[in-house]
Design goal:
The chain has two helices and 14 strands; from the N terminus they run αβββββαβββββββββ. The protein is mainly beta and 228 residues long.
Length: 228
């Protein structure tokens, strides 16, 4: 219970930072770049951070592209994880020195279809003074359409500034996507770039930071991000 109260306080503090985080869109005259629709927004850049919750819990947050291309920040929600993996991680046998954290960054359209996503899984051990070992894997997913069309992965990568004997191991993953399909046969209008940063700390805690750049988007698209 104390862990949950402490995390609630951390989320409240984090929301202040999230509200002030970078969330910008291009000037109004550029908003018609996508198909001439007045609801279109060009060159949208969003960013934010979430604390990693206690074992067995997840933190989720949505950001919606609102009127006038202004991002609308949803609440950071603390929810229980589901399934056998969550039960195993919540068990007392799961030592604080051996931790795992997963992050996700997903873009959805106004019909709640996931267009693109970047996912990371980090494992690390620590002795309370240094991170003794760490590793991070990154995967990507994207939506395809019939006739070999839709979103495609253009590039991806990951890096770590330190993986052992460090106070903090900072891991960065990125993925760039392009689109060519029924909404744009030219392949020149839409592009999403995700970047996720996970900081693994010697005290067994961690944090997740997220960025997404959208070449063109629409009012009603939403960005879903989280850590668990």
């Amino acid at each position: 219970m104390r862990n949950r109260i402490a995390l609630t306080a951390a989320l409240t503090t984090g929301l202040l930072a999230l509200t002030a985080a970078s969330a910008t869109a291009a000037p109004n005259e550029s908003r018609t770049a996508a198909s001439g629709d007045a609801r279109a927004c060009a060159d949208v850049k969003l960013s934010g951070a979430l604390p990693v919750p206690p074992a067995g819990m997840a933190v989720r947050q949505n950001v919606t592209i609102g009127p006038d291309c202004t991002p609308v920040l949803g609440p950071a929600r603390l929810v229980p994880k589901a399934g056998p993996l969550a039960e195993a991680q919540a068990a007392p046998a799961a030592a604080a020195a051996d931790r795992q954290v997963r992050s996700w960054s997903e873009m959805y359209d106004c019909c709640n279809i996931r267009m693109t996503g970047l996912y990371t899984t980090s494992d690390w051990s620590s002795d309370g003074t240094v991170v003794t070992a760490s590793t991070t894997d990154a995967t990507q997913q994207w939506n395809r359409e019939p006739w070999n069309a839709g979103w495609s992965l253009k590039s991806s990568g990951k890096s770590a500034d330190c993986v052992a004997n460090c106070a903090v191991s900072t891991n960065v993953a990125d993925a760039s996507f392009t689109y060519k399909g029924i909404f744009d046969p030219t392949g020149n209008v839409y592009a999403n770039t995700h970047r996720s940063t996970v900081a693994l700390k010697a005290d067994g805690t961690a944090s997740c930071e997220f960025e997404v750049d959208l070449k063109n988007t629409f009012v009603g698209w939403n960005w879903q991000r989280g850590c668990e």
